[in-house]
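The record is passed on directly below:
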Amino acid sequence: MAIIEVNNLTKEYKLGHLIGLRQNTMNVLKRLTGRPIHQRETFKALDNLNFSIDEGEVVGIIGHNGAGKSTLLKHLADISKPSSGHVKVNGSVAPLIEVGAGVNPELTGRENIFLNGAILGIPNKIIKSKLDEIIEFSELEQFIDTPVKRYSSGMTVKLGFSIATSMDADILIIDEVLAVGDLAFQRKCFDRMERLIKHQGKTVLIVSHNIRQIVRMCSRVIMLNQGSVEEDGDPNTVCDRFYAYSNDKIEAEKQKTLGQISSDSDICELVDIQQVAGEGDTHEIISGQELKVKVRLKINKTIRKPEIVIGTHTTDFVYLTGDSTSQNLTLDELQPGRYEFTCTWPSYPLRAGVYCFRVVVFNEIRGMLLSGEGLAMFKVLPALQEAHKPGLRLLDLPVNWAFETQSPDT
């Protein structure tokens, strides 16, 4: 049964600058005399969206900044009204759209708990029964009777998350707040979300740029692009499409620059970085094959006891490898000149995807002389075609399976 129905949803905003009193007066006169008025350009934040969400579904909404994610959630939470089309929600909604949403800064934390419960139509008796649980989860016992305007933004989101996930609403809407607080509180947030999903069967909508969280927690993902639904379906399939789209965009940008480099150019400069495979240059390998990269440096002043580190990382900067010349090279010094270093991994067993190289140059006196990330991109292709959707993983390690039939217990 559909708990949310979105039909031909469109939201338009008028673009333009503020006009003065004289221009306003001229516009009024034009209207009175029937003359045309120059209309400002409109921007469609949402463009004719159509989809439905069934009760108990956990749906991730992804897309680049400006794709319409937060605008969509505000319509689902009835915070904003559409330009055309309509949204039908069959149940109560607990929205956690942004920092401080639904929280009155003039009231104390305790008063906000009762206010939010009342807005959701929850009886005062039930709110009181949940009060200690909400306060304990928020870790704000010491400040619960302090006005929220005295809270930090992190404390405000802690309170808002605790309220929203403790109330018995049919639909929970969360926008970019799962990473609130320190690591311990983030872990608590994830655990509570998983309990809501797996044990209480809540309908949950999550917007996040953390795609790994989306894949892990959601049963379905909708990808928005310029206000329209680009893809809707299995989390792995949709998120892989999003990664491919993002990687193409990143690769286009990399053509303009050699990544992010910080260096003391008077001493050391990065000239070039190039992946090499087989007989020629390439940007692709099959998972498990050899990965080789050459780094060319220009040394302008003598570097004593140098150390060069070459590594790889994902496009969202999860470091995967980082290997140093100190492991099997002895470098007493590098005098002024040009040098080429080759780093070879006999097997690179990463799952299919797009990855980047990074380079760091150290010496024993001045410390880090050069640091660069995202310096060149390469693709890893799958070694085998899987019969079913791939599991969540980063590594494609060699594996052997064994199978035997055992007699049933007697």
About this structure: The chain has two domains: 2-249, 260-381. The CA atoms of residues 58 and 204 lie 5 Å apart. The radius of gyration is 28 Å.
